[in-house]
Automatic annotation (TrEMBL):
Source organism: Punica granatum (Pomegranate)
Superkingdom of source: Eukaryota
Annotated ranges, domain LIM zinc-binding: 8-68
Keywords, comma-separated and alphabetical: LIM domain, Metal-binding, Repeat, Ubl conjugation, Zinc
Name under which the protein is recorded: LIM zinc-binding domain-containing protein
Length: 370
């Protein structure tokens, strides 16, 4: 703050300052009442202020507008001991959150992987998983509900000239039943930390979900299961899928497991894990791309006033389309040597030679063509 003794023009109102107090900052001079915050338009009388571009801000206003807030707790993300703003961000959803939420028990949706925010409540499934309400919208909860999806994927395989001749039962199961079946299965590689699908070749009795659970108070209840006896009449006895996942995720897992079934029923040799899982991921990726393409064409011809809860009747909501893109991104960005590297090698082979030629090479050599 200075006292004017000469001819000066205020950078705020473009009038002469005259005699009296003025501010000298930002390479200009100002009437005290003309130097205002770009956010709240109130005069800045503090000794310190913040800037963005060529605009001044109160420090509190600048923090409100530019300091990142946590998408989980809704508070400003704190600075670390070095005075830097440090946060975590989901690579697909760009959900920003405090690093502490990775260790404080904050739930994640078991489908889209987004963290549960303080102003949203996720549904707790019977086996301890949490599901966000947007993923719940298209979730498949019982075996009978999954049969139309199973038939549509069978038609997808027929369109690839890869019809599965043998009837293979499809069962939706809880996490415990899937893990028990995995432990008893001699063949296969399982994607950790959680198995979501399994192609069985052993005889056993499986507890399958007969009636979907009721949802109330943020929890599921009254789910009905029944034992299902699997008899071995071929190399594949059943396909098991974890219940409670959205339609597009359920479908991509099912397309993957059906490729395992196709390879076994066609008599392929025991393949290297990255080759078998890689080609199964390629087919799952192809199915997802097809669904997203169909969803885009349907969405383009559907009125924007349509209900968002129409995903199970064939029309994709905007979120379900985004969810499908996330599942596709998961396949493409997987870092595991078996699933991730296997997919990328298989994808390049199919892109270069086509699926039939790639499968013929796998049959003869047990590897992807170079």
């Amino acid at each position: 703050m200075y006292y004017s003794t000469g001819y000066r023009i205020c950078a705020g109102c473009n009038t002469e300052i005259g005699h009296g107090r003025f501010l000298s900052c930002m390479n200009a001079v100002w009437h005290p009442e003309c130097f205002r915050c770009h956010a709240c338009n109130m005069p800045i009388s503090d000794y310190e202020f913040s800037m963005s571009g060529n605009y001044p801000y109160h420090k509190t206003c600048y923090k409100e507008h530019y300091h990142p807030k946590c998408d989980v707790c809704k508070h400003f993300i704190p600075t670390n001991p070095a005075g830097l703003i440090e946060y975590r961000a989901h690579p697909f959803w760009i959900q920003k959150y405090c690093p502490s939420h990775e260790h404080d028990g904050t739930p994640r949706c078991c489908s889209c992987e987004r963290m549960e925010s303080r102003d949203t409540r996720y549904v707790a499934l019977n086996d301890g998983r949490k599901l966000c309400l947007e993923c719940l919208d298209s979730a498949i909860m019982e075996t009978s509900e999954c049969q139309p999806l199973y038939r549509s994927i069978q038609e997808f395989y027929e369109g690839l000239d890869m019809k599965i001749e043998q009837h293979v039962p499809l069962l939706l199961v809880e996490r415990q039943a899937l893990n028990e079946a995995r432990e008893g299965e001699k063949n296969g590689h399982y994607h950790m930390p959680e198995t979501r699908g399994l192609c069985l070749s052993e005889e056993r009795t499986i507890s399958t979900i007969l009636r979907r659970p009721k949802i109330g108070g943020g929890r599921t209840s009254n789910m009905v299961t029944q034992p299902y006896k699997l008899s071995r009449c071929c190399e594949v006895t059943a396909i098991l899928i974890l219940y409670g996942l959205p339609r597009l995720l359920t479908g991509s897992i099912l397309a993957h497991e059906m490729m395992h079934a196709w390879l076994r029923l066609k008599g392929y040799r025991t393949l290297r894990q990255d080759v078998e899982e890689g080609i199964c991921q390629v087919v799952a990726h192809m199915w997802l791309e097809n669904e997203l393409r169909l969803g885009s064409s349907v969405g383009a011809s559907t009125s924007s006033s349509s209900s968002s809860r129409t995903s199970k009747r064939g029309v994709r909501s905007n979120f379900e389309m985004r969810l499908g893109e996330f599942f596709r991104h998961q396949i493409e960005s997987d870092t595991s040597p078996v699933y991730g590297d296997g997919f990328r090698a298989g994808y390049q082979a199919v892109k270069k030679y086509g699926l039939p030629s790639t499968l013929r090479h796998i049959w003869m050599a047990g590897t992807f063509p170079c």
